[in-house]
Amino acid sequence: MQRQSKIIPDHSDPGDEAAIHLAALRRFVSRRVADRDLVDDLVQESYARLLARADSDPVHQPQAYLFRVASNLLADLHRREMASGPIQPIDVDELPVRPEQEDATGLADLQGAFETALGELSPRCRDVFIMRRFDDLDTGTVAQRLGISHRMVQKHLNRAVTHLYIRLRGQPGEAP
Q1: What is the pLDDT of residues 93-119, one digit of tens each?
Q2: Lowest mean pLDDT among 2-6, 41-45, 164-168
Q3: Coil, strand, or helix at residue 170?
């Protein structure tokens, strides 16, 4: 059931040419705005402006005038919405999963994938990687502790980094 405002006539007066166009105007506005109350407000405001103008300067094409006014009101509405920002604030407490939880889950998944990939390396390759990257030892110290050459430390490190990169590519939390 459609509401009728006091300004908009009830279409019973066949002499009122503007009233004939109100149904088309309502359809025009409702295709652009989802809120029914806002549609009614925009149609009513368009008609009110037509009536206000008709007192001082008769409108020869009321349908065109109504649609132009409604278009301008819609543009004003859009500009106001854009000025206030299209993104509405979200209450973090109402989210099913908080961002911190999602980050922690992604980090745990990445940590698990890293440990699995590290476990796939040969013991020597894994030791070289851990000593260089986590223990922050230089190549000479790693070579001396493991009894291998500097060149072999570099080869094991390259092999480990390549393997880890391939295995962890596309994991959540992975940098591009």
Answers
A1: 555 555 565 666 777 888 888 899 999
A2: 2-6
A3: coil
> Would the CA dihedral through 67, 68, 74, 77 be positive or negative?
negative
Q: How far is CA 24 from CA 20, 31, 41, 47, 98, in A?
A: 8, 11, 15, 13, 46
Q: Which two tokens stand for residue 68?
A: 């132009």
Per-residue burial over 139-175, b = 16 or more CB atoms within 10 Å of its CB, e = otherwise:
beebbeeeeeeeebbeebbebbeebbeebeeeeeeee
Beta carbons within 10 angstroms of residue 25's beta carbon: 21
Query: Are residues 69 and 28 in contact, defined by beta-carbon separation less than 8 angstroms?
Result: no
pLDDT at 138: 92
Global confidence as pTM: 0.41
CA distance 58 to 175: 66
DSSP alpha helix (H) spans, 1-61: 17-20, 22-30, 36-56
Query: What digits encode the pLDDT tens for the residues 156-170?
Result: 999 999 998 888 886
SS3 labels along 99-135: HHHHHHHHHHHHHHHHHHHHHCCCHHHHHHHHHHHHC
